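Subgroup meeting minutes
Present: P.N., E.W., G.H.
Scribe: E.W.

1. P.N. recapped why we're keeping a running log of single-chain structure predictions: easier to compare across weeks, and new members can see raw inputs and outputs side by side.
2. G.H. added today's entry (221 aa).
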Amino acid sequence: MEFRNFWLYGFHLSGILFAGYFFYLLFNKIKIKRKIKIFLGLLSMAVLFELSIEFLFHFDSNYWVIVYSVIETVLIGVYFSEILKKENAPIIKIYYLIFTVFFVSVHLLLDVKDRFIWDGYIFTFQTVSIFLFSTIWFIDLFSKLEESSLLKNPHFYFVCGLVLYYAGTETFFLLSDLLYKNHHKLFFDVYFINSFFIILQRIFFMLGLWRIQKNYTPFYG
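Output recorded in log:
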C-alpha cells in the first residue's frame, strides 16, 4: 500500500510539474504557436482539473472519462493540424468526422457505466490516428531534411510522448473492462503500467517545452 501511495504521489507530481512548467513559459512570454499553446494549455488544465475532482470535489468519474476522451481526441486533431503540411488538412477533417460518427455510435450502444468498454473503443481510435499522423509527420520531416538533429525539434518530443503512451497502454485499455470485472486486484496492479506511461509522456512533454524555451525563436510565435 505504501508503494502505491508513493507511486500515486509521483504520478500527480509529474502532472503538476508539467502544468507548472507550461504556465511558467506562458507567464514569461515565451512564444509558442497558437494551436500548440491550446494543445498544451488544455492538457495542463485537464491535469489540474483531474487533481481537483479527485481531492476536492465529488464527481462521477464515469462522466469524466467521457468528457476527457472527447477533449483528448479534439486536442490530438488540433496538435497535428498544426505540425502536418497544409495539404494534409483533409485528413484531419476526416478524423473529426469519423470520431463524431464513432462517438455517437458508441454513445447509443453503451451505457455510461460501461466506462472501460467506452474508453477502450475511443482509445483504440485515438491510437490508430496518432500512429497515422505521426508516420505522416516523420515522412514529411525526413523528406525535407531541414532538421540537423531531431533532438532540437520540440515536436519530436511531443510526438514521441504521444506515441509511447498510446502504444504502451493500448492493450491495458482494451482489457480494462475484463480485468476490472473478473480480476479486480490484477486490474489495479496493471494500472501502474498505465501510470508509468503517463509519467513517461509528461517527461517527454516537459522536454519539448524545454526545447521550445531553449530554441525561443520567432518560429514558435
